[in-house]
Structure formats: C-alpha cells, structure tokens
Automatic annotation (TrEMBL):
<dbReference type="GO" id="GO:0008678">
    <property type="term" value="F:2-deoxy-D-gluconate 3-dehydrogenase activity"/>
</dbReference>
<dbReference type="InterPro" id="IPR011286">
    <property type="entry name" value="2-deoxy-D-gluc_3_DH"/>
</dbReference>
<protein>
    <submittedName>
        <fullName>2-deoxy-D-gluconate 3-dehydrogenase</fullName>
    </submittedName>
</protein>
<dbReference type="InterPro" id="IPR020904">
    <property type="entry name" value="Sc_DH/Rdtase_CS"/>
</dbReference>
<comment type="similarity">
    <text>Belongs to the short-chain dehydrogenases/reductases (SDR) family.</text>
</comment>
<dbReference type="InterPro" id="IPR002347">
    <property type="entry name" value="SDR_fam"/>
</dbReference>
<dbReference type="GO" id="GO:0051287">
    <property type="term" value="F:NAD binding"/>
</dbReference>
<dbReference type="InterPro" id="IPR036291">
    <property type="entry name" value="NAD(P)-bd_dom_sf"/>
</dbReference>
<dbReference type="GO" id="GO:0008206">
    <property type="term" value="P:bile acid metabolic process"/>
</dbReference>
<keyword id="KW-0560">Oxidoreductase</keyword>
<dbReference type="Pfam" id="PF13561">
    <property type="entry name" value="adh_short_C2"/>
</dbReference>
Amino acid sequence: MDNQFSLQGKVAVVTGATRGLGQGMAVGLAKAGADIIGVGFSEQTETKTIIEDLGRKFYEINADLSKQDELASVVQEAINKTGRVDILINNAGIIRREQAENFSDQDWDDVVDVNLSAVFRLTRDFGKHMIENGSGKIINIASMLSFQGGMKVPAYSATKHGVAGLTKSFANEWASKGINVNAIAPGYMATDNTAPLRADKDRNAYITSRIPQSEWGTPEDLAGPAVFLASESARYVNGHILCVDGGWMGS
Ligand code: NAD
C-alpha cells in the first residue's frame, strides 16, 4: 500500500523550531521523510542534531520574525537553500500576560507582530512560491484562544482569533490553486510558553481537572496531526482548524 503520509522528498519550513511545539512538529515531519528549514532567532542546535540523526537535512535561518524587513529575506533565503519549499508551518508565537486594563501598547504590538503580522506575510510570500509550483501545504498554529477569550491575554487571544481567520481566508482563495491552508489548535501543552501556568499549583490543578484526558499535551502530540495536514492524506482538507487538545473543546 502506498504510504499516504510520506513526506519523502519534501522540504518544510518550520518557524520557531528551536524548542517546544515547533521542534515536536519539525521532528515529526522529518520522521515522515521531509528535510527541514528551521527559522528562529536563537541557536537551533538541538533540533538540528535530532533531525540530522534521523538522516534528514536541516537548514537554519536566523531571523527575528517581529521585524518586518527580515521576513522577505527569510522567504528568499529558504528558496535559495533548497530550490523549493513544499510545506510551511507558522508556529513561532509569543504570549504576554497582564490584566486587560493594564495591558500595554508595547505588549500589544509585540504580540501582534509575531503572532499575526508575521504569519500573514510569510503565508502570502511562501504561498506565492507554492502557487507557482502548483502545490503546497500551509499549517498555522492557532490555539484554544482562537475560540475563547482567556484571562489576562487580550493580545494573544485577538491574534489567535486572527490566525483562524487568516487560515480560512487564504484557504478560500488558494484551495483551487493546489494549496491546502489549515491550522492546528493545540490545547494545554507542556512547553516554556506555559511554564508559568504549570508553576501555579492551583491554576495547574484547575486546568488539568478540566482536560477530559486529564493530562497536558506534549510537543510529540502535534507530530502526527502536522504530518497528516502536510501530506497527501489531507488533499481534500482545507480551511480547517484541527483541535489537538485532549478533548478540551468538546468539554
Ligand atoms: P515556546 O515559547 O516554547 O516556543 C516558541 C518558539 O517561537 C521558540 O522557538 C521561539 O524562539 C520562537 N519565536 C518567538 N518569537 C520569535 C521571533 N520574534 N522570531 C523568531 N522566532 C521566534 O512556545 P510553544 O508553546 O512551543 O508555542 C509554539 C506555538 O504554539 C505558538 O504559536 C503558541 O502560541 C502556540 N500554542 C502553544 C500552546 C501551549 O500550550 N504551549 C497552546 C496553544 C498554542
């Protein structure tokens, strides 16, 4: 039987592949056969080692995705390195926590720049390249806060709602051009991003009690869903937001 989940011969760009969910998905795609271009603003040594040990190529691009002028060169550099990009995972994201009435302009701008503006620009520019190739898979990383408001995270929630909107908007325009644009909405996953929540004993206990699977997810839990959406198995899936959340959204 053909392996409909194989990514053999494909090249995937993963932003924020240094650690956490980005690393989990990059490793998953590499296990399925893809070479990886990691985009990040710190050393990606650990991810590079894991992927090369799997026998796949790892290319590193250093860029600060909050800086508009660095985004265009990311696209060009990626295409120059491999000649072709088949898969884009817009994973890099940040969160700032503060009471809504005290939330600063600076925090708002910082979160919007990375979580929303960079996703828009990278999707637009890699998408143009994919349209020329006649195929491509784009996976945006959304959140439970693409559906809910959350507490003390107005910018994060607004941008993740925006990511859901961008996903559907690009899918509408590009589905007929051979491009699949989908999103994964992770639930509560154990990474640096959520370390403060897990450090708060009461909050941690409350969150865990509300997850039907009674445990936080891990970066590895996103590998399979990412491989699925990046593969030909997802040929007829477009504009979808796939919750990977231990049952949270249904509860
Ligand atoms: P993380 O903080 O562990 O990793 C974030 C990654 O993004 C890092 O590699 C970091 O270097 C990179 N990054 C941040 N700002 C950047 C910038 N300006 N330029 C380049 N790279 C930058 O976080 P994570 O938990 O792995 O989150 C990954 C994605 O998943 C984010 O979009 C986050 O919003 C989303 N998410 C996480 C959870 C969770 O529970 N952890 C839940 C839902 C959604």
